[in-house]
Amino acid sequence: MLTSAFPSRLKWPVILDYGIACATPALAVVLDVSFSRLWGIDPPASVFLCGILIVAWVSGPGPALLATALTVLAFDYFLMQPIYSFSLEFKEFPRLALLTIVALFMVSLSAAQRRATALLRRARDEQREMVQELRKLNEALRVENTERRRADEKMRRTEQEFRLIADNIPVLASCRPDGTVDFRNKTWRDYSGLSRDNLEGRRWGSSTHPDDLPLVEREWRSHIATGEPFELEQRVRRADGEYRWHWVRRVPLHDDSGNVIKWYGVGFDIEDRRLAEEAQRRSEAALCEARRELQLTIDSIPVMVSTFDPDGTRSFVNQQWQNYTGHTQQEATGKGLDTSLYYHPDDVQRFDNAWRIAQAKGETLSVDVRTRRADGTYRWYTMRRAPLRDERGNIVKWYSVGIDVDDQKVAENALQRSEAYMVEAQKLNLTGSMAWDLANGDHFWSDETYRIMGFDRSAKPSMDLIMQRIHPDDRAQLQHEVDRAAQGAQIHDFEQRLLMPDGQIKHLCVRAHRVKYVSGKEEIVGALMDITESRKSQAALDAAQTALAHACRVATLGEISASIAHEVNQPLAAIVANGQACLRFLRRETPDLNKLRGAIEWIVKDGKRADEVIRRVRGLLKKADTQKVLFDVNDIVCEVTALLQRELSAQHVTLRLELASAMPLIVGDRVQLQQVIINLVVNGVDAIQAVMDRSHELLIRSYEDEAHQIVVAVKDSGVGIPAETADRLFDAFFSTKPNGLGIGLSICRSIIEDHGGRLWATNNTGEPGATFQFALPSHQEQAPLAGTSKLDH
Amino acid sequence: MEGNSEQVVFVVDDDESMQAALTYLFQSMNLHVEVFGRATAFLESELPSIASCLVLDIRLPGVNGLEFQGVLARAGIHIPIVFMTGHGDIPMSVKAMKAGAIDFLSKPFHDQDMLDAVMRALDQDRKRRDEEKAVSQLRHLFESLTRREREVLPLVISGLMNKQIAYRLEISEITVKIHRGQVMKKMEARSLADLVRMAEMLGIKRTNLQE
């Protein structure tokens, strides 16, 4: 009864039971104290007993026992004299003992009641379980009954269906345990085109492909022996005679004792599947091959290939990449890799920025960056990274290739450098370069060309622009060159004058040639050199040279001035003497007219002679510019020797002339060549002076050599050329003479070279002395070389 | 035939017109002229024994005038020389004059200068020739002396007395006196002074009295 009232009591935690046990005596104490204080009633013990009773009822015997103990203590403390002390007066003892006994009794009662309640509950639960089980059993029987009915129904239907299926499934046959056929379904019969009779009692195989027959026979035999099911793929002949692959499974049916009572066989036409499989296998192999090839290609192309995920994580690198960097695929791929591992420290920042921007914009990146090779050297690579997008336009991958452009880069740098050099060089030697595309008339000018032509860099170069600058007198010549270019001339070499806007005249030396490129394009490529300054300095140099030659000539004449004076004096003295003789003859009473005539004739002759000498000397002393005329070299040899005759005889030198007759004429400056001969003769005489022991001889020869050059040789019998001075003979300011300036021979050489000839000296072979000689081109030889040079004939 | 046949002017100049001019000039002075182109040609020619002079150009082919002067001197040809030069200089003229040249004229020269020089040269040569003639006469006389007379002569012209001469030659004073008279007579000397002059012309030196 109590348990039913508090069905959930059991759920309380034990600690709560004991809590109630503790709280109840406390409550009783409070009530008792309240009673005594408020109403002055003597505190009744029954309140405590009530508390214990409640505890026993609610919480059971254990907590009740605790409540009892606490109650006894509380009772002793609060209600028994002396109050608020655990000590006990003797007279109070019976009261306490009574209380204790009553309490304990109540506890024992409570315990007994509880035990009885528990027994009752258990009996009721067992009964309830039994009813439940009976109900379940009943249900199961009913279900079983229904099932069995349904199975019977199903079996019936199955048998019908089997027939239908047996006739309709692809190929079905049954055999007796020895393998002889006893049934074939309609599909089979229709398929093979064989009648039922034809099949009875025969082994499977009449329609088997002959090549498969041994296999089928073997399998059959082994499996009949073991009674195991087996599967075969074999070719079966269709009614139209075509053999098609079939998958055939044969399963034995056993009786209860395990003996085979029948074999069932099903076959499926797998020809199409086989073909499809074959095709798939082939395509897979092809795919595999293609993949392998692609991999090989990616790994073997000489560029670094890598791929990146959209977040910039490197996901793949090819073999070339690994070979170059020396990092493996594992090291190189993955998140958060440091790019400074791969690129030059100076380039990392730039490259990372470019890559960030490319990623942000989704644009193709192309950056030249120095990439670190496994051995630590850096080479220039062009890195190109391009995004792959899906159909929605999202980037799914980045493909990156790195192409080694180091050689290109080096070449590029070298090219830039050489370009810079060229600009400097052009600036330095005032040479501009230009190109003229013949097909479209485009011109290209270098900076220096613009500068020389005096045009701004913004001007578009053209033939008209050039013509603007060309000196009016030279335009025809340029036009001529342009025409030649149009006619296919290979080489152009000419000089032009420019008339600048400020009136200044520039001299240009232009050299160009035709270049044919592989593309078939043809250009005139050339250089133009501003030779204005060198022209000026050449002119100054020429003037100085002329002045020096003149000075030298005067000096040489000074050396032989005594001879020249004598040469002039001689006829003058003769004239005077003759004149005086004439006067004396006239003073006679009968003048001797014959003698007078003779003397006067001599006077005239000597006058002419003196004039001749003076004219020659004046010619030599004249400070005239070079005048090239046509003359016979023998003439000037004779003139010079006439002038030097006296000097030679004074120095006791015998002069011999061996002049070839009918010599070709030469073109040159008479005075200058006379100077050369005088110099050579005077030098020869000087060389002879040092000789005492042999005859003093000087030979002047002229002849035409095998190269048709006119040679004049002055051969002396002097001391010859010492070996140590031979090299310096023609050097300026080198002299063996005590008072010599050392410019004579140097000037002679420059005069001869100016005439297109050469001057040289050799010691005589087989006899003492030296020979100085010069060779000059004859007029006929010189004419084609001289080209357009003007001659004063 | 022009000029005085008793004298001749030789000209050596390699210049043809100069040769002609000098010929006319000397002819106009009535002088006999002979012209040579080269010094050697002159040397090879036979010289007449009449008063003559040489007009010589300094510059000559082969050998110059001054050298030729030396050559002539060494050959004992005492012909007076008048030098001509195109442009003479002082050292050259001094050298020429020292070597006994009559004059040194630079071309062109004044005809009178040339005439004077040539005349002077001819006079000198004539004088020399006269002297040479006298000396050869004296020599002839001198050769007629005996050995002892030739020994006595230098002592006499040295101013020694007969006694001193006798002592020196260890002969008697009388003998000396005879020799002396013989010398005076043979040499046709009118006085002692005359004899001394003759001895000088002959190049006989006086005996050193200290010896």
Quickly list its features.
heterodimer, A: 793 residues, alpha+beta, five-stranded antiparallel sheet, 22 strands, elongated, B: 211 residues, five-stranded parallel sheet
Q: Can you offer a commentary on this structure?
A:
The complex is a heterodimer of chains A (793) and B (211). With 793 residues, chain A is an alpha+beta fold. Chain A is 53% helix and 20% strand. In chain A, a hairpin with a 5-residue loop joins strand 9 and strand 10 (395-404). The termini of chain A are far apart. With 211 residues, chain B is of the alpha/beta class. Chain B has a 5-stranded parallel β-sheet, sandwiched between helices. The mean pLDDT of chain B is 85. Chains A and B meet through helix 18, helix 19 and helix 20 of A and helix 1 of B.
Structural class of chain B: alpha/beta
The whole-angstrom Rg of chain A is 71 Å
Percent helix range of chain B = 40-55%
The coarse silhouette of chain A is elongated
Strand content of chain B: 5-15%
Most residues in contact, chain pair and counts: A-B, 31 and 27 residues
Shape by Cα distribution of chain B = elongated
Order of SSEs of chain B: EHEHEHEHEHHHHH
Tell me how many strands of chain B there are.
5
Strand % of chain A is: 15-25%
**Percent helix range of chain A:** 40-55%
Helix count of chain B equals 9
Question: Quaternary state, please?
Answer: heterodimer
Q: What is the CA-atom radius of gyration of chain B, in angstroms? A: 23 Å
Strand order of the largest sheet of chain B: 2-1-3-4-5
Stretches of chain B where pLDDT is under 50 for at least 5 consecutive residues are: none
The total of helices of chain A stands at 24
Short description:
The complex is a heterodimer of chains A (793) and B (211). With 793 residues, chain A is an alpha+beta fold. In chain A, helix 4 (61-79) packs antiparallel against helix 5 and helix 21 runs antiparallel to helix 23.
Write the layout of secondary structure elements.
The complex is a heterodimer of chains A (793) and B (211).
Chain A: H1 2-5, H2 14-39, H3 46-59, H4 61-79, H5 93-168, E1 171-175, E2 181-184, H6 186-192, H7 196-199, H8 213-226, E3 230-237, E4 243-254, E5 260-269, H9 271-300, E6 304-308, E7 314-317, H10 319-325, H11 329-332, H12 345-361, E8 365-372, E9 378-389, E10 395-404, H13 406-429, E11 431-437, E12 443-445, H14 447-453, H15 463-469, H16 475-486, E13 491-499, E14 505-516, E15 522-530, H17 532-559, H18 561-587, H19 593-621, E16 629-631, H20 633-650, E17 654-659, E18 666-668, H21 670-689, E19 697-704, E20 709-716, H22 723-726, H23 744-754, E21 758-763, E22 770-777, H24 779-786
Parallel strand pairs in A: 17-19
Antiparallel strand pairs in A: 1-2, 1-5, 3-4, 4-5, 6-7, 6-10, 8-9, 9-10, 11-12, 11-15, 13-14, 14-15, 16-18, 19-20, 20-22, 21-22
Chain B: E1 7-12, H1 16-28, E2 33-36, H2 39-44, E3 51-57, H3 65-74, E4 81-85, H4 90-98, E5 103-106, H5 111-143, H6 147-157, H7 162-169, H8 173-186, H9 192-202
Helix pairs in contact in B: 6-8, 6-9, 7-8
